[in-house]
Amino acid sequence: MIAFAALLERLVFTPSRNAKIALLRDYFLHAADPDRGYALAAIAGTLAFPAARPGMLRALAMERVDPELFALSYDYVGDLAETVALIWRPPADRPDASPPGLTEVATALADTPRADLPALLARWLDICDTPTRHALLKLVTGALRVGASARLAKVALAEIADVTADEIEEVWHGLAIPYAPLFAWIDGTAPRPDARDAPVFRPPMLAHPLEGVDLDALAPADWRAEWKWDGIRVQLVRTPGGERLYTRTAEDIGRAFPDILRILQDMAGHVVLDGELLVMRGGAPEPFAQLQRRLNRLAPSAAMLRDLPAGVHLYDILFEDGEDLRALPFDTRRARLESWFARNAPPMLGLSPLIPFGSFAELAGIRAGTRAEGVEGLMLKRADSPYLPGRPRGPWWKWKRDPLTVDAVLMYAQRGHGRRSSFYSDYTFGLWRGMGDTRELVPIGKAYSGITDEELKFLDRWVRHHTIARFGPVREVEKSLVLEIAFDAAQPSTRHKSGVALRFPRIARIRADKPAADVEDIPAFLRATRCVDGP
Amino acid sequence: MVAWLVPKPEGLYCAPGDFYIDPLVPVPRAVITHGHADHARPHHEAVLATPETLAIMALRMGEDRAGRARQSLGYDTPLRLGDVTLRLAPAGHVLGSAQVVLEHAGQRAVVSGDYKRVPDPTCAPFEPVPCDLFVTEATFALPVFRHPDPRREIGRLLHDVRLFPDRTHLVGCYALGKAQRLVALLRQAGYDAPVWLHGALRPICALYGRFGIDLGVLGAATGAARDAMRGGIVLAPPSAIADRWARRLPDPVVCLASGWMQVRQRAKARGVELPLVISDHADWDALLQTCDDTGAREVWVTHGREDALIHALGRRGVRARALRLVGYGEEDEAGDAAAAEGEPA
Ligand SMILES: [Zn+2]
Ligand SMILES: [Zn+2]
């Protein structure tokens, strides 16, 4: 538990991905079995036990600490688990034992009735040091935000074993805590675990944006085009071992989409499908914001299932009847997908259609002409492309619609993370609202990217010289610099003061030439982006 | 009741000796506990302090501002001033830091200045002095503040240095006291590579050297080749670690050595990657222990988080009151409380 606590303490303050991986590697290399398996479970969020309630922690602390001192301390620290970890005093006759191992903690938590938990916890707290107490309390309250994802842990393990993270991903969902076969494989003492009939995740094939590619050099007949839907990319897995709905980052989101799981349960055989998850209305996809409402919920209400029914537009088939189709050419897989679909006809699932075209010019016209809801652009796939995990350059391209842009005024800036931590590199920008005396700027979004290092330096200097107020790490600046913001879509939002949320905003350029007073008003912007109906 | 020591807006005034202790504005006669800028202020007429504190004051504010007449007094040397006998006892805070021990009319009062109880290789250890009235600081007076063993924190730093051999560990620390202590702790832990210093830290490190505190090989971070500092440890004032100054370093791991680093929000707000809980102030246990050790029936609290300390002392039957002297806690960690709530510079 001590080494795990030290790892958590270091991870939580570490912004850089590479540094996190290095920390995880160091831990997995040196921690013992099965502790490191439980640590992996804790990081991946797969450790399950009934969580302790905050009230129990408070009551436990009150038995040891003067209530007034506790109140002053909690007020200062602001976090209950942290306050208890810091304030806890072992009794004078402190038991002479070393802190519990992670394995002991995880197994005891799973077996201990809730009523016995306070006594067990107090016994542990008495023999732990402060960082270990903190990790322990975060763990038992189910609030372990470790600052590292399951994916990052797998990347670290892959580096140790000199394999790819995707190879780990393919066996991951067939393994159970504490992952002994996985660590045996990582250590080189056993072969790779066999997933067999388990509903494991298969790393998806991703595409690069179509940039710097000469379309004239490509033969249209070698390529297939399909819509790129504006939902989330998912993998549907149905095996004799169960059904799963995975995101493209291997997150299991089945609980949030029981309607999709039910459809998978009704199917037969062993099939893995690739598609886009959408909210559907009469067979047509709804805007992404509707899907977002479903994604925000851990488990949907009956009303949500009725009003926001989920569906999937299918792009590809990876396994059919347990047969791995990934090495076959795209055209062959497409034929298998169409044949499978015709035989099974699952409700709420549909084939994402291929778009016939004679030339890329014609296709460009189709791309420019569509403003249909739910379409982000086009996908180009080579007719002979196998299904390769990762993001290989060449066989697939995504050809998004041209972004929309808006000129907005820089309002606030904040320091970035990692390499950019000494620069003001996160920007909040806004548009005008109101008339005369009540005319004010209202933020419409935040952007972190899109600029060159030169532009970053310019903005950093500009922010420092035009600061008018500071709030912690945030600087408010003079409202005089205009930024051209590119974004993929604008959606009505009740959560934002402006009434609008931008998808993927980034900075297109700095418009030092444009006066701030000349940028648009919010109502005009909402009409232009069809977030409200025109007058 | 000690009636001859009086809190005034100018600072704590000793009436029978006609002098102030750590006055906040220029006065005719001042006794200075230590060299931090909030305790040692410029333009007094006469200044009495340890030789180390006088040297620090002269270095930091210039001879002309460090008091017109300067009297140096070593530890444990009684001196008669008016109707008072005064003696300086080590406070363990920074080099030359002293508690002011005052005796008058059969009563003894001790003004501690800032202090800590943990051994520090760069200064004389705190000496508890039995007294009737103890005047204490309260920078870390909440029971959540219990500073871990500094050797453990140095161990964490060195482990990190080994783990990231291509990065530079940039440690934010206060120029007087903390910086020198960090170097000394690193040396004790067996780290013998050069420690790189921001320009603002160099003069005081040199002064510590003149007082016989060996800090090993020190390099100037300003002007050093980027690659020379790769894998090394650089010390800089807290204001420099998250700012443009840090850009000269290869892929820095930003660290900050302060008692405030105990609290996560504090470390997060400062953008610190490796918080090191190393403090030159007494933690909660040490504050209570020290009040106990002095046996004082009356405790005055100069600056810090006095509510909790007064409450806890009250429960032990000690009469405690807050002096609320405005102006302390502006240079060292004590001042960081205010700084962290504003700009995390
Ligand atoms: Zn001080
Ligand atoms: Zn102070």
Automatic annotation (TrEMBL), chain A:
Residues 303-450 form the ATP-dependent DNA ligase family profile domain. Its EC number is 6.5.1.1. GO terms for molecular function: ATP binding; DNA binding; DNA ligase (ATP) activity; metal ion binding. InterPro entries: ATP-dep_DNA_ligase, ATP_dep_DNA_lig_pp_1105_fam, DNA_ligase_ATP-dep_C, DNA_ligase_ATP-dep_cent, DNA_ligase_ATP-dep_CS, DNA_ligase_N_sf, NA-bd_OB-fold. SUPFAM superfamilies: DNA ligase/mRNA capping enzyme, catalytic domain, Nucleic acid-binding proteins. PANTHER family: DNA LIGASE 1/3 FAMILY MEMBER, DNA LIGASE-RELATED. This is DNA ligase (ATP). It comes from Gluconacetobacter sacchari.
TrEMBL record, chain B:
The keyword Chloroplast does not apply. GO terms for molecular function: exonuclease activity; ligase activity; RNA endonuclease activity. This is Ligase-associated DNA damage response exonuclease. Coiled coil: none annotated. Its EC number is 3.1.-.-. Keywords: Exonuclease, Hydrolase, Ligase, Nuclease. It comes from the Bacteria. The keyword Hydrolase applies. SUPFAM superfamilies: Metallo-hydrolase/oxidoreductase (SSF56281). It comes from Gluconacetobacter sacchari. It is an enzyme of class 3 (hydrolase). InterPro entries: MBL, RibonucZ/Hydroxyglut_hydro, Xnuc_lig_assoc.
